[in-house]
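Box S2. Input/output pair 1.
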Amino acid sequence: MDDKTTASSRQTADVSSFGLATAAAAVRNGDITSEAYTAALLQRARALAELNAFITIDEAEVLAAARAADKLRAAGSAAPLLGMPLGVKDSYLTKGLPTSLGIEGLAHFVPREDADAVRAIKEAGALIFGKNNLVEMSYGLTGHNARYGQVKNPHARDHMSGGSSSGSAASVAAGLVPASLGGDTVGSIRVPASFCGVVGFKPTTGRWPRNGVAPISHTLDTTGVFARSVEDCILVDHVVTGEQAAESSDGDYGLKGARLAFARDSSWIWLTPKSSPDSVRWCGNCRTPAPRSWKWTLAATSIPSSKRQHGASSLMRRWARFRSFFGATRFRPRLRPFTKALSLSFGRRGSTSYCQVVQVLPRQRPIRWRST
């Protein structure tokens, strides 16, 4: 019995170390079945439940989907993500699987359709392993969630996982899934990827579809992915965007002669146009210097004040997107203007959940909205 248990644990550990591209190739080639791979990851998820990386996992459903993927492979399917169990941040709509945004009031909200990015990975053969824990309504960078628990860093339980896509990063770092979808507005992919030691891919805003993902900022929201390697992120990017893989070139990465800009009124104020490539290579806590063949020019620029760019109309659009997302009117927002910022509260009566709008806005008279 002990030998069988040891062998089972070793097999689980082996498959949990697979990256997405490696696991997908193994399933396509018949080296391992999707059902066996998924079952091993489920066993590992149960063993590491203390991480609080997931809010919802429907084991019976994901195993049924894995068996269906194995039948498709036997029939000749070669979908790029065939049989791959992926995590999804619980701010994405997932058909038939609860989408809570990490708050009590939406614990039983079950969407009737998938977010566009979820639909894309499903069409490529992926399985939804479960819904990842997150900071309430994706608003925070620590990984704390009062309802579903603090997401713990797999490398050190007493360290933060980062947020808001905390569960997505932690589940990849812990080997519970080979990749997981997340979202980024002001760092919600970049911060937990850094804290948990995985690759976090934040595409250019607008590159990936955002439809079906709970919005925070119509100008900054970006969907993305966590994985164990850049190769895995590229694979998911090609699936979601529909782009074909480009041929890689060795040696020349195309940065020679490029001009890089920095905002002089931001945290990069210490950089000047006279900064050498050596100093720029090591800025931002980068630990790997760029090849010396990369030559660039550093140019200073400035970002227009958001006071001139945003107004009440942006808040109206944001509120319309929230109402469209939930398709209901039970949420009663209250806008409380401050000197330079507005705090936007969403929740049912008596709820303490809130989401703060981090935009600098001009002084204006108090505004109060009530849904009908």
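Box S3. Input/output pair 2.
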Amino acid sequence: DDTLVQVVARGRFSTGNCRHCSPVLCALGFLSMSQWDPHQYQRFSNERSRPFFDLVGRMPDDDVHTVADLGCGPGNLTRTLVERWPEASVVGVDNSAEMLASAAKVAPHPRMSFALGDIATWHSEQPLDHIISNAALQWVPDHPRLIPQLVSQLAPRGVLAVQMPYNFAEPTHTFLEELLGQEPWVTILGPRQQQYFVQTPAWYADTLHDLGCSVDLWETVYYHILTGPNAVLEWVKGTALRPTLSRLNEEEQQAFLTVYGAKLRAAYPEGPHGTLFPFRRLFFVARWR
């Protein structure tokens, strides 16, 4: 993990803007992944798992001995990789202690391990045949630096496989941005910080080709049918809302969720069979030549 001094020194976060935090805590607060709730995240585990398997399904199987799952979360999907590539050693990396505590409960395997680490700075001790990152790189800044760094860790003919949300123009995100730009949330939370760092599909295609990779790149829109009251709010409470909710006290959280939840109910009305929730995702599988 980044040390506190490194985080502040690199200027990735503003300091002292949140009235709840000291400058030091505020620097860590907005984009910190330390406040993940594994239980909330896995409420829609089937829907969240589908893109992972769609991504891994497009990866080659030849000569796979070393695999890293970056942003492994609660580890349940990492466990499937040792079954997919039984000769490989698999490491799951995440910077959330809560997620790794959940991963520790996954059925053990002698070729599987987990490590606390920040994707932005983590380096493998050996070249990797496969690097997988499912729904994690959108949180990591500076992709022009990050993507070459990841490719540089591949073994010859190694594969970098990535999936990221690509739905930032949808109501889940536009309503959130709208609210965070209004009072009282500007006073409470400080100026809005950039939360997502996804580039365009063309940028990834050009960058990966320039790095000497062949590229398979695509988008998929999943039409999830979610069940339960205000199901889309429950979905985003496990992901997009985490940086915001982690900086609000209980009373403020309830006030924020009341307003935001009403907007989501209007945008995603519940039907007789559940709530239809379109979710666009961007994928690429890049093989280093």
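Caption for Box S3: The beta strands are 66-70, 89-94, 112-116, 128-134, 154-165, 213-226, 270-271, 274-288. The CA atoms of residues 133 and 248 lie 29 Å apart.
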